[in-house]
Amino acid sequence: MQVQRQILEVTRREVTIELPASFVNHQVEIIALTVDEERPVRRRPHPDIAGKVTIRGDIFSSAPESDWDVPR
Known about the structure:
The chain is low in regular secondary structure. It contains no helices and no strands. The model has no long low-confidence stretch (mean pLDDT 83).
């Protein structure tokens, strides 16, 4: 499956998009969603595990820094 995502400013009821050549001779599904201001979603743990985890010690020193995939 190939995916092409575009965020467009809609000024009329019609929107024209250009698809890659690899989409030719294939069926495609077009889904139009409105994108409102993105709000951060507050994630919550499942009730069965909420409050049952205890972190002991320094979790960052448990693996080499190169193993952590974080930007610097």
